[in-house]
Sequence to fold (413 residues):
Amino acid sequence: MPSKLQAPRGTYDVLPEQAAPRRALEQVARRVLEGAGYERVETPVFEATELFARGVGASTDIVQKEMYTFKDAGDRSLTLRPEGTAPICRAYMQHGMQVRSQPVKLWYLSQFFRYERAQAGRFRQFWQVGAEAIGSDDPAVDAECIALLWTILTELGVGGIELRLGSLGTPETRASYREELTAYLRAHEEQLSPEVVARIDLNPLRAFDADHPGTKQVMAGAPVLMDALAPEDLEHFEEVRGRLDAAGIGYRLDPTLVRGLDYYSRTLFEFTSDVLGAQSAVGGGGRYDGLMEQLGGTHTPACGWAAGVERMLLSAEHRPEPHAVCDLYVAGTGVPAFALAVEARRAGLNVQLELAGRSRKGQRKQASRLRAAHVALVEDDGSITVEDVVNGETEAVPGATAAVAHILKGRHL
Ligand code: AMP
Fold:
């Protein structure tokens, strides 16, 4: 017998009973972000591979190991999007959004794809909520981005959150710091893990991410970027911090904060939840003033973040959501029953129709399972009796229109 078909490793099905918390999350994200003037966008699920190679950075794990890249029938190299920022920057340029009032504030709730080691909280197809504010280098943008994600996580009741904050400075500062760090790593090569040694020239900052004990020991004494910031970057960072302090948003300065994407400059942040175990990052982001140029556009400062939907759901308090109300259950399987259901729905009622040919007794049970407020018994000759389940009253009505009017009149709000 052929083996049972399963969803691919690292993917999952959202079953009906799991839909409610996801919907609640979407509502919170929408309220918070649209309330702050962010507008929702959706970009294609696949893009030209070059967009991510240029936008995410050739040396990153994402581009080196994690992309779902394929050739289409026209021999174009396409990639399932592994992240949302580069596509949004592409869309900003493609649609000439620089002529709009700046910053352009956009948000999304979309699926992303990365070939990662699947485990709890880490999937190969996953969802992110993200926000991008494009076209301003004001530190208020950075602080607002952080505050919006903080508000969403707080409203969802994500447990044990910590905000880590750092600054990467400008590309020039990073370049000279990179030389300093590279020299330090070379001087301690024999204590480092082989993977870190192999990547010293490619991406020395990633050494701060390593779990290897010898590497960790070396990194504890490594020079840190925040000490090397240029005065204007330090001032920008102080402005961001001042706003977070004023808003009562607590954070821990983390000079070793690195994220797996190359495009960040200046502010960098990450929220973790202690409820999550190994995959503790819930969401993060930062400023990416150089990305638009990297993609062939003009200099356009911007800031944004992305947060993992699965991780927010895993770490959030689940408040049960009330079921959708069933205003009317139409008991009857004939044509008149069908016509009543359609007419009642057109009038705005939530209607469920008997679809499984149940007996009268089975229909009763089904009505109570659905917690229907009204039940319409519809005979094949078109006669209709409407029962108000709450007060137990029944009424014979002359037809579908009268039945709908009767229900609307006595509707339990
Ligand atoms: P990143 O785009 O890597 O900065 O990720 C932002 C957030 O998305 C992370 O903090 C996670 O919450 C979530 N995330 C990233 N990769 C995955 C994945 N493979 N599975 C589930 N969530 C993820």
